[in-house]
Amino acid sequence: MYAAVVKYIILTLCAQTNAWSIHDYNAERANLLEQEFGLQVGGNIKLSDKENSANNVLMRYKRQEVDESFQNPKYFNFSRHYFTYKNDIEKSKVYHIIRKMPKGAALHVHSSLMLSAERLLALTYEDHLYACFADDDLKLHFSANVPQRPCHTKWQLLSVLRNETEDIVSFDENIKKHFTLYSQNEKDLKFDINYVWERFNKVCRTIKDLIAYRPVREKFFYEALKEFYNDKIMYIELRSGLPILYELDGTLHDLTHMPRIYHRVAKRFKEDHPDFIGIKLIVTIHRAKDINKIRKSIEIARRIKEELPDMFAGFDLVGQEDLGKPLVDFYPALTEAKDDINFYFHGGETNWFGSSTDENLADAILLGSKRIGHGYALIKHPSLLAAVKAKDIALEVNVISNVVLSLVSDVRNHPLASYLAFGMPVVLSSDDPGAWGADPLSHDFYISFVGIASKRANLRMLKQLVINSIKYSALNASEKLEAFKKLFKEWDDFIEDLSTNFR
Ligand SMILES: *[C@@H]1O[C@H](CO)[C@@H](O)[C@H](O)[C@H]1NC(C)=O
Ligand SMILES: *[C@@H]1O[C@H](CO)[C@@H](O)[C@H](O)[C@H]1NC(C)=O
Ligand SMILES: *[C@@H]1O[C@H](CO)[C@@H](O)[C@H](O)[C@H]1NC(C)=O
Ligand SMILES: [Zn+2]
């Protein structure tokens, strides 16, 4: 298809050797741009009359925002760190429209980092929570008695500490800081990838401490589903390791307990919210582990697949790609599994062209990954890009994550702009929205739509992205049919609302 288009363009350009009338020139120019516009994500979507009037409302606001920044680039917030403008997003009309838009599915989220710091803080009000404050580290543990885990200072009941403090608000603010990377502090806005990942890993550890206690994990997960649902997300594919959960008396659960909890809580959530479709699970393990651990993890993934076939989606490796092992190191274990376990690999979450992390993209393609997490570096690989397009492997793009975790500082330079322009199979997701205080999806959609996609990209692109989220999910054919039915009903309501109430 590209070849045909390119040939057409060359032929038409070469034909114009004689002087044109300005009229012909303008027609040709419009044609050329229209051709290209048709290649974009959403280029094939036809809008109904209702959708067209909704689109007019949306685009009026989008053009206003983009024009303002174009004329005053010093006020263009998206060229700065997300933390500097996060709280201003509320002021945008486009954002409020996107908030209301049904978004289909979130396909790239890590389960323990789904929930906002506010809701995590609320969970620290649960009984029997011990805290160990040491320097700028916070360890947490639920226990009937003083925990046996090592602590440089002293384990104390958080409820007692909170009761003793003069100023509960700042006490709680201080705890909340351990649950989020969000900061207005100048030194936390710098783009040193290892520094940021270190902070990030610390936040992960504290949160995992809090939610390793089985009853709190259940509450946590229900709350997380609620935050996603309220952001108009109907279905989620979670990436989750298999942590060992405990009870108050110290009883430990086995590795397959957690998926059962996901299954049970999601079922309860669905009963309470009938228009929610559900979740599926991508089992993950840290890429720093050795191949035997990877084998063992795949073995457990198989057991989960057997026990909970409706919920199991596949397998992935996580952790900072640049510092972890490349996929090719695990080739023997992964190739053994690739016929019965679907892969959803992270790949190319790097700025290092030609590095082992960069080449993970080749392994993801060769090992048959169903989608690729991030695929940030793919733009530099024309053959791999063509293979991804030909095999219709979706790219799970997480823009805010890439800003916060230091891959890009001005989002206009994000490769998503090219992926959208080339009509690549793209889905938007949010990776770890709780860890940086983003909406489950709305912030990522808003920034992508206004800050990255073409100024001309409109409701057609948004609709295609929403459709893609179901199309490229791990739902089976009949589940997809059901999901699309619900999605299009919600979509029609959204269009009705936008075209009539949002002038
Ligand atoms: C951009 O950020 C500034 C503060 O730095 C804020 O006053 C302004 O409203 C923001 N603009 C938008 C469109 O969010
Ligand atoms: C809080 O402290 C007061 C005394 O300062 C005490 O009477 C009360 O029982 C404490 N409450 C809890 C929950 O520890
Ligand atoms: C699709 O998944 C549903 C469960 O959600 C299951 O009942 C059905 O059998 C599956 N269909 C196929 C073709 O696997
Ligand atoms: Zn991720």
Q: Mean pLDDT, nearest integer?
A: 93
Q: Give the N-to-C terminal Cα separation.
A: 39 Å
Largest sheet descriptor:
4 strands, parallel
> How large a portion of the residues is in β-strands, by DSSP E?
5-15%
Task: Give the helix proportion (percent range).
Answer: 40-55%
Radius of gyration: 24 Å
CATH superfamily of the largest domain: Metal-dependent hydrolases
- Characterize the overall form: globular
Structural class estimated from helices and strands: alpha/beta
CATH fold category name of the largest domain: TIM Barrel
Number of domains: 2
CATH class of the largest domain: Alpha Beta
Number of strands: 11
Strand order of the largest sheet: 1-5-6-7
The number of distinct helices, counting runs of at least 4 residues, comes to 21
Written overview of the protein:
By secondary structure, this protein is an alpha/beta fold. The protein has 21 helices and 11 strands. A 4-stranded parallel sheet has the order 1-5-6-7. Helix 5 (93-100) crosses helix 19 (442-452). The protein is globular. The model has no long low-confidence stretch (mean pLDDT 93). One 2-acetamido-2-deoxy-beta-D-glucopyranose binds at residues 310, 476, 478-479.
SSE blueprint:
Layout (H helix, E strand, L loop, with lengths): L1 H14 L6 H18 L9 H23 L10 H4 L7 H8 L4 E6 L6 H7 L5 E6 L2 E6 L13 E2 H7 L3 H10 L15 H18 L3 H17 L4 E6 L16 H16 L5 E9 L4 H17 L4 E7 L12 H7 L8 E2 L8 H11 L4 E4 L7 H9 L3 E4 L1 H6 L11 H6 L4 E3 L4 H4 L5 H11 L6 H13 L5 H25 L2
Parallel strand pairs: 1-5, 5-6, 6-7, 8-9, 9-10, 10-11
Antiparallel strand pairs: 2-3, 2-4
Helix pairs in contact: 3-21, 5-19, 6-8, 10-11
The structure holds 2-acetamido-2-deoxy-beta-D-glucopyranose (NAG) (3 copies) and zinc ion.
One 2-acetamido-2-deoxy-beta-D-glucopyranose binds next to helix 7.
